[in-house]
């Protein structure tokens, strides 16, 4: 019996590899036949007929039906990212991008790198309203990334000709965006030139002889808020000195809420070049961030307040240590420290074209700003605060001063109008 079982095992063993080989060949044969539109015959003898798509003929039948007609060349196949799609009402074309598209990586490069923005002269704008404001002001678009075609159709068609339009997945835009709720459209623009921009007529109509100079402002949120206040107050121009955060950084753009395209902004200026951008006879006033004005006002010693601010200025800017120690011991400032008169912010300081300097919260105003204020007959403008409060936020101080300047100019204009009507 054992011998019989052994013999049976010996007889069955060779069949396994044969069955495996046959099964493997059968699979290869079936895979090859899948390309045929006719019939599939399996090793068991079963025959399955595959139906063709309606209107589709076999290649052989087509060649026999038209033996004398030349065969038309098929257009070359294009990858999905290179296949343009059009919409009839505008005649514009757009591409569909997939993950790994190299064009998408340029977006993050622009966002993260200020040297790249300055070298290539390109900026990134996000959101339908900001992009619409930019186009209206004359900014030149280069590329648009969007997740829905409706977002592009909302933009002026004449502004989109010659612009690369790329449709991407919303998830990709969400990964790039810093917004809590991304709007599904981003655009790469040429860096705007304030000379070539077309600002709103209403903004130009309400423009005032009032300028803003930003001195070493490094917080993007503060700068964006300040630009928004400058546009709201009717400033004729905003100057940014070297050391300030880039005005075209995405966080500044987001906080500015379109102010970049409502008021001219001149970026990255040396202090020596600042007077070239000021109207004739402009007086430059400095926002004093020394919060001890309340104590000085209570004691009616404005000169004491000036000495306190000078002492603090020397400490913050860390000039020559021996000079600082000497000044702190004597309580007097050296001749090289500009002598700028202290004045409350609500007293009249707009009798001439005025410029206001706003300093950063960390270092305050610079020595150069005080020197410019002294040379133009400007003042230190103080905003009273409660004792114990060091200073106001830079954006808040700028808003208070700019709208106070607007109030003073409006009151002066009303007085002039009454005098003319009286005479």
From TrEMBL:
Keywords: Methyltransferase, rRNA processing, Transferase. The gene is RNMTL1. Residues 124-195 form the RNA 2-O ribose methyltransferase substrate binding domain. This is RNA methyltransferase-like protein 1. InterPro entries: Alpha/beta_knot_MTases, MRM3-like_sub_bind, Ribosomal_eL30-like_sf, rRNA_Methyltransferase, SpoU_MeTrfase, SpoU_subst-bd, tRNA_m1G_MTases_N. It comes from the Eukaryota. Residues 47-87 are annotated as: Disordered. The keyword Transmembrane does not apply. Belongs to the class IV-like SAM-binding methyltransferase superfamily. RNA methyltransferase TrmH family. It comes from Galeopterus variegatus. Residues 74-84 have a biased composition (Polar residues). Gene3D superfamilies: 3.30.1330.30, 3.40.1280.10.
């Amino acid at each position: 019996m054992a011998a019989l079982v052994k013999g049976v095992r010996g007889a069955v063993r060779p069949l396994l590899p044969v069955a495996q080989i046959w099964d493997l060949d059968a699979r290869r044969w079936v895979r090859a036949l899948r390309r045929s539109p006719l019939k599939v015959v399996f090793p068991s003898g079963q025959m399955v007929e595959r139906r063709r798509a309606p209107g589709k003929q076999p290649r052989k039948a087509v060649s026999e039906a038209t033996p004398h007609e030349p065969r038309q060349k098929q257009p070359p196949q294009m990858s999905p990212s290179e296949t343009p799609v059009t919409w009839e009402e505008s005649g514009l074309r757009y591409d569909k991008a997939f993950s790994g598209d190299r064009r998408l990586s340029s977006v993050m490069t622009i966002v993260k790198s200020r040297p790249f923005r300055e070298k290539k002269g390109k900026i990134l704008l996000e959101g339908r309203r900001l992009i619409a404001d930019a186009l209206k002001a004359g900014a030149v678009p280069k590329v648009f990334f969007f997740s829905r075609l409706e977002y592009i159709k909302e933009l002026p068609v004449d502004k989109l000709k010659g612009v690369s339009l790329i449709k991407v997945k919303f998830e990709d835009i969400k990964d790039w965006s810093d917004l809590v709720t991304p709007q599904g459209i981003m655009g790469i623009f040429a860096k705007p030139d304030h000379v070539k921009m077309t600002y709103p007529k209403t903004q130009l109509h309400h423009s005032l002889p009032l300028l803003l100079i930003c001195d070493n402002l490094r917080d993007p949120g503060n700068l964006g808020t300040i630009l928004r206040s400058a546009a709201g107050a009717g400033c004729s121009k905003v100057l940014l000195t070297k050391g300030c955060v880039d005005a075209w950084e995405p966080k500044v753009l987001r906080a500015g809420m379109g102010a970049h395209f409502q008021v001219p902004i001149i970026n990255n200026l040396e202090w020596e070049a600042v007077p070239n951008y000021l109207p004739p006879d402009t007086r430059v006033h400095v926002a004093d961030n020394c919060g001890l004005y309340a104590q000085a006002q209570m004691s009616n010693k404005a000169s004491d307040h000036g000495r306190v601010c000078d002492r603090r200025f020397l400490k913050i800017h860390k000039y020559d240590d021996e000079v600082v120690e000497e000044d702190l011991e004597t309580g007097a400032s050296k001749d090289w420290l500009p002598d700028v008169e202290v004045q409350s912010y609500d007293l009249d300081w707009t009798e001439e074209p005025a410029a206001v300097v706003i300093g950063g919260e960390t270092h305050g105003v610079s020595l150069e700003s005080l020197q410019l204020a002294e040379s133009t007959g400007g003042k230190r403008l103080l905003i009273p605060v409660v004792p114990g409060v060091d200073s106001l936020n830079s954006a808040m101080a700028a808003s208070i001063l700019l709208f106070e300047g607007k109030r003073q100019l409006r009151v002066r204009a009303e007085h002039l109008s009454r005098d003319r009507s009286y005479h």
